[in-house]
Each structure stands twice: as C-alpha cells, then as structure tokens.
Amino acid sequence: MEFSIKSTHPDKQRTACTVVGVFENGQLTVAAAMLDRACGNALRTLIERGDFEGRNGASLMLHHVPNSPCERILLIGLGKEKEFREKDYGNAVRAAMKALKDCGAAEAYLTLTTLTVTNRDSAWKIRQAVLIGQESGYRFEQFKSKKGDKTPPLAHLLLAVDNRKEIAAAEAALAEGLAIAEGIALAKDLGNLPRNICTPSHLSDTARQLSQEHALHCEILDRDAMAQLGMHSLLSVARGSDQPPRLIVLRYRGLSAATVKNAKNGTKTGKPIVLIGKGITFDSGGISLKPGEGMDEMKFDMCGAAAVLGTLKAVARMRLALDLVVIVPASENMPGGSASKPGDIVTSMSGQTIEILNTDAEGRLILCDALTYSERFKPDAVIDVATLTGACVIALGHVASGLFANNHRLANALLDAGNESLDRAWQLPLWDDYQEQLKSNFADMANIGGRPAGSVTAACFLSRFAKKFNWAHLDIAGTAWKGGAEKGATGRPVALLTHYLLGRAGRRHD
Ligand code: BES
Ligand code: MN
Ligand code: ZN
Questions:
Q1: Which residue in 40, 179, 261, 282 has the fewest CB atoms around it within 10 Å?
Q2: How much is the pLDDT for 384?
Q3: Residue 147's pLDDT is what?
Q4: Residue 429, preceding peptide bond in cis (omega within 30° of 0)
Q5: DSSP H helical segments within 281-430, as ranges?
Q6: Helix (H) or strand (E) holding 18
Q7: Is the Cα dihedral 476, 478, 484, 485 positive or negative?
Q8: How far is CA 196 from CA 180, 203, 291, in A?
Q9: SS3 label, residue 260
Q10: CA of 224 to the centre of ligand 2 (A)
Q11: Residue 6, SS3 per DSSP
Q12: How far does residue 294's CA lie from ligand 1's centre (Å)?
C-alpha cells in the first residue's frame, strides 16, 4: 500500500472514502464536523437518530452522502473523549483499516491522525497509522496453492495532518513507519516459515542477502570456526541434529567520522550496539524431549533471530546514525544419536563449565557463547532477544516481554521504547539471591535452576556471560507469536528495538 501526507480539509478532499472519528457522546471530531457542515448535517442527524454511538472501535460506512466530496464516509467510534489514549487510537485506526479492506475503495483519506492523543505528537500518530495499515495487509500465503481472499482494492492511503507546517515532519515519520513495518514483515516471514525449509543454513542465506541489499558487512561462522573459538556450549546444542549450525554476524555502520564527533545522546564514542537473537530453528527439547502436543509451535523458537534481523533491516532503511552489530547463533535442538545427554558437561567460550541437566534449556547454551563473542566489538550495550522460557508466558502472558538488565539506564530506555511503540516490556529482577539455584555439584553451573522463577534463573545464567558490558535480555516467549486460530509470528519486539535505536541515534520525537 502507498501512503502520502495531506493537509487538505476533509470537506475539500475528493476521495473514494474519507474516514472521520466520532466520540461516544455523539460529539464530532473537528474533521467530522467539517464534513458534516459540507453535507447539510447528515452526520449529526444520523447520530441524533441513534444510528451510531461512537463506541471505541465501532465503524459505519455511509455511501453517497449528498454534497460530500467523497464517494463514501467511514465513521469510526473513538469512545470517551476524556479517555482517548494510545490504545484507543490504535483500535480506531485498526477498525478503519478493517472496514476499508472490506469495501471497494481504492484510496482513502484517514483523518484520525489529526486527533489529540495524550502525550503523543503527530509523528507518533503517523508512524503508528502506517504500522497498523501495513499490519492489516500482511499475508503469509507462499505455501497455499490457492491464495486467500483477493488482494483488497485499497492501494493508497492519505494521512491527514492539521496544517502545511507539519508536512515535513510527518513525511519523515511516514518513512520511519514504512521502514519499521518492513522490519516487522521480515521478522514475521522468517518466523512463519516451516523449518524443513528455513534451517540454520537458510537463515544465514537470508542474512547474506540482507547484507548485500544494504551494503552490510556479513560474516558466517560454521562448526569448525566456532570450535576454534571454543564455543562448545553452542556446539553441544547442534550435536543432535543433521543440520549444521551457524553463527551469523552482520554489521551496520551508520556513524561516519563526522557524525561520531557531532552525535548527541552519548553515542559519541562510536561504540556499537550489539543485538543477539536466539536462532533455534526447531526446539524438540533434545533428549529431554518435549511432549508432542503443540510441538509445531517450537518452529517459532528462532523469533529472537527474526526480530534482530528485522530490526537491522529497519535501521539500515532509515540509515540511522549509529553502529549496530547483529549476532544470530542458529541451530536445531534435536534428539539425535550424538545429542547432549542430561549430565553432560561442556566448556563455554568464556571458559566457564556448564552441566547440562536438561537439554531443553538450550537457548541459554547458545546465547552464552554469542554473549562472550560480542565482547570483541567493545559494545556500548548488548541486548539479547530470545523465546527463552515457558515460565515467562506464565508470568506475563502474551502482553509484555520480560526484561532483565544489569544497567538501569539501559533498562529504562528499553521500557520507554516499549511504551512508546506499544510493544511493551516489563522488568523482572536479576538479584544475586536467585543465582544460588544454578549451583551444580560437578561443574561451574547447571543450565537449569528448577521450577521457581524459571525466567529469572535463565536470565541469571546469561548474566554470568555479560559481566563486561551493559546488557539487557528480552524474553519474548509470550509475545513473539500467537497460537490458536490466529497462529503466526507477531514481529515483536522489532518495534520496541527500533524505537530504542531511533532514540540512540537522536531521532526520537516525543
Ligand atoms: N523455547 C523454549 C521456551 C518456550 C517454551 C517458549 C514454551 C515458549 C513456549 C525453551 O528452549 C525451553 O524449552 N525452556 C524450558 C526451560 C526449562 C527446561 C528450564 C522451559 O521453559 O520449559
Ligand atoms: Mn528448549
Ligand atoms: Zn528453545
């Protein structure tokens, strides 16, 4: 879908459909009132008759309203004006996209972007509208021989701003929205692919392709290269599979010598930010085999990898002024004849030894070596993203990702980015008291800490490999995909991460 920014008043804009909001007490928004005046109070009359109550997310399509400049008027309910917040704005735009998709209009004028949303500027509203618009058009049908519903006719969406002065900023926000949406779509596509096709080698092919499209530096380590580095924890996970593991390393450089000097927001040093994504392309549990029911969903166990690759794509598209390194340890976790057994002890790249008491706690085993590897980049911050623990789904459900960090500023910046992008995270503790649960009788540590606080002990395990830098860990087990009838990858937390990086590059708007 194409987007453009317009500051035309809705009573002057000819379109196939103009979308205006109505509050719950029947109060028209500024845009609706303008249109209402143009067409002899048709909207007010209809509301007074009780045909539209303005409940948040409700919609009513009107055809051929006399004297209006548009073929259709779409009324969108906004709810109570006093309580109109980010979430209500999102619901309203989503309802508009749904109704637009179901009608025959090829182009529409969305005026909801001129509504007042507490604490949010016009750039935020534009970015969010673009993200919702692109999300509503997402399909994953490459394996269906008959494609689903025909492509909806809506091809062009005009987004309203209040006046000409806002156009330049809104256009910048539109470009950002499109870049983020592209990153989200990549993360969803990679997440949704079946794992007989998207193996660790396929993932590294995709990474290489991405590096060619955006002139990134790309290095892919195979089993031998990893063995040379001493990554025996990572390699132990791959032992049960016929698919060879990969360590994917991509580097984006957005800081020229000049920008290093002038950069705001503490990026002066030019130290990179490192993103690490868990890339288990299928998690059977290994010898500690998972139960069969719903095991197909463990194809989503590489959604951390998908998210960091999607974020990199968005960052490269926006040409953000920062340096970024993306690392993806990629492997299957399978119960083959050479697979790790409970009780096995491996030596990680850091030199610390690990007793593998449960082969299903494999995420931390690949991430710990990726964390140690990231030291070589002298990072400003390292953020790992992983579908790490079922316990995180129990703690936070499918609403918030779990956040852990060894640095307050980094944690707060990520929490803020989550709030701003509506891709929220919630912080959980990393106190030393929990470290005791990882005690092993035979090695430096065990790879599991028992049932209590399972997400915390997983993060505690990782923290032992992240002592040399500012580090945060996002557990996205509950947020990376949806199950049930809507089964599919969500693309989270690409929005959170890109908003964080926008801030780091001095481009945050709010
Ligand atoms: N990939 C899973 C975590 C997971 C499970 C995410 C279910 C989403 C839904 C991870 O590798 C795993 O198996 N974790 C174990 C750890 C346990 C053995 C300590 C878990 O959560 O059960
Ligand atoms: Mn597992
Ligand atoms: Zn896993």
A1: 261
A2: 99
A3: 77
A4: no
A5: 303-318, 363-374, 390-396, 408-421
A6: strand 18-23
A7: negative
A8: 28, 12, 20
A9: helix
A10: 24
A11: strand
A12: 13
CB atoms within 10 A of CB 338: 11
N residues, the chain: 510
- Has 364 been annotated as catalytic? yes
Task: Give the mutation target among 297, 354, 389 for probing the ligand 1 site: most ligand atoms within 8 A of CB.
Answer: 389
Helix axes 122-136, 167-192, angle to 10 degrees: 30
Ligand 1 midpoint to CA 136 (Å): 30
CB atoms within 10 A of CB 111: 29
Tell which phi-psi region holds residue 101, choosing left (phi > 0), alpha (psi between -120 and 50) or beta. Answer: alpha
Three-state DSSP class for residue 20: strand
Is 290 catalytic? The answer is yes
Residue type, 424: R
Atom of ligand 1 nearest to the CA of 458: 19
Contact 20, 35 (CB under 8 A): yes
pLDDT at 150 (0 to 100): 73
pLDDT of residue 262: 55
Closest CA to 158 of 118, 203, 107, 205: 107
The bound ligand whose nearest atom lies closest to the alpha carbon of 335 is: 2
Q: What is the pLDDT of residue 267?
A: 46
Please give the structure tokens belonging to residue 351: 């030199």
Cα separation of 330 and 9, whole Å?
52
Among 16, 96, 23, residue whose Cα is nearest residue 60: 96
Taking the C-alpha atoms of residue 177 and residue 134, their distance in angstroms, rounded to an integer, is 9
Q: Report the predicted TM-score, pTM, of the whole model to 2 decimal places.
A: 0.96
φ, ψ for residue 75, nearest 5 deg: -90, 135
Pocket of ligand 1 (CB under 6 A): 283, 301, 358, 360-363, 387-391, 393, 448, 454, 477
- Cα of 317 vs centre of ligand 3, distance in Å, is 30
CA angle 252, 253, 257 (to 5 degrees): 175
pLDDT at 146: 86
Output the CA–CA distances (angstroms, integers) from residue 360 to 25, 152, 291, 459, in the order listed. 54, 43, 11, 15
pLDDT at 508: 65
Mean pLDDT split into 10-residue runs, the chain, 510 residues:
97 97 96 96 96 96 94 98 94 98 95 95 96 96 85 91 96 98 98 98 98 97 98 99 98 78 56 98 98 98 99 98 98 98 99 99 99 98 99 98 98 97 98 98 98 98 99 99 97 98 82
The secondary structure of residue 428, as a DSSP letter, is: -
CA dihedral 406, 410, 413, 419 (to 10 degrees): -30
Amino acid 111 reads T
Q: Which of 37, 290, 468, 482 is catalytic?
A: 290
